[in-house]
Amino acid sequence: MTAALELIDVVKEYPGEPPIRALDGVSLRVDEGEMVAIVGPSGSGKSTLLHIIGTLDQPTSGIVRLAGVETSAMSDRNLSAVRSQLLGFVFQQFFLLDGMSALENVANGLLYSGIAPARRRAAAREALERVGLGHRLEHIPSKLSGGERQRVAMARAIINRPAIVLADEPTGNLDSKSGTSVMELITELHQEGRTIIIITHDRELAASLPRQVLVRDGKIESDDGAPAVATAGVS
Fold first, then answer.
1. Domain extent at residue 166
2. Angle (CA) 50 87 228, round 5°
3. Which residues contact 173 (CB under 8 A, 6 or more apart)?
4. pLDDT digits (tens, 9 = 90+) for 163-193
5. Is 89 helix (H, G, I), strand (E, B) or coil?
6. Distance CA 87, CA 84 (A)
7. 145 three-state secondary structure
8. Which residues pair with 215 in a beta bridge?
9. What values do phi and psi take at 197, rounded to 5?
């Protein structure tokens, strides 16, 4: 199998006396097409791990590879390119702009792609129809339910057809019916061959996924389906 993600001996420290070590020598491999839950209590390091995986932050030390590309020491410009080409993000808080319609919010997912505005809007329409919101294209987020807003966020995440989807507590702000609907969409993406990594504190949600990685105190405490992880410096 080909690795979609590799972390090797990743450490993340924040300034302090002594420094705060949020990740402490984390090694993790996720193969292409896997669906993985990274689960842990508040303060366990799972959100820091999400930021490192998603290239939103850089490790203090260690190696991070996405689709075989080492991102650990990339410039911000190159990291932005990697994010736009490989990653789709779904966040608990949605992060939608209320002054814009659902269509405009989703089209913004291609804002820095170099694609012409008309093509961005056409792709946004297609993505919204995919998540069942073809009838809500011109609605602003405040006029949508929580489940609908999360589906807009999902449409924005998949508009660039990412190889890896990172979902941070994707059902955390939703009622059970909306949460089930969102997880069905995420499962469909997985069945299409995308790699899915879900960050959650919800043990029931994690248990429903094929693989669970438990993070505690900045370390991986258990991993019930770990493929072999390379050693530092070895491809």
1. 34-59+73-211
2. 65
3. 92, 93, 94, 146, 150
4. 999 999 888 888 888 888 889 889 988 998 9
5. strand
6. 6
7. coil
8. 220
9. -125, 120
Nearest to 199 by CA among 64, 44, 9: 44
Q: How many domains does the chain have?
A: 1
Q: 226 lies in a domain?
A: no
Q: Tokens 């248990």 sit at which residue? A: 207
Q: Which residue has the tokens 């995986």?
A: 53
What is this structure's pTM?
A: 0.86
Joined together, the tokens standing for residue 39 give: 């689960």
45 falls within a domain: yes
The closest alpha carbon to 45, from 14, 3, 89, belongs to 14
Top pLDDT among 116 and 72 is at: 116
Output the six-digit token pair for 192: 């299409």
Q: What stretch of H or E contains 126?
A: helix 117-130
* Cα atoms in the 13 Å half-sphere on the side-chain side of 99: 0
Residues in the chain: 235
Rounded to whole angstroms, the Cα distance separating 157 from 13 reads 29
- Give dist(CA 2, CA 101) in Å, integer: 39
Q: Tell me the CATH number at 185.
A: 3.40.50.300
* Residue 112 lies inside a defined structural domain of this protein: yes
Q: How far apart are CA 212 and CA 215, in angstroms?
A: 10
Domain membership of residue 228 (yes or no) is: no
Please tell me the distance from the alpha carbon of residue 51 to that of residue 234, in angstroms, as a whole number: 24
Residue 150 in contact with residue 182, Cβ under 8 Å?
yes
Percent of the chain topping pLDDT 70: 95
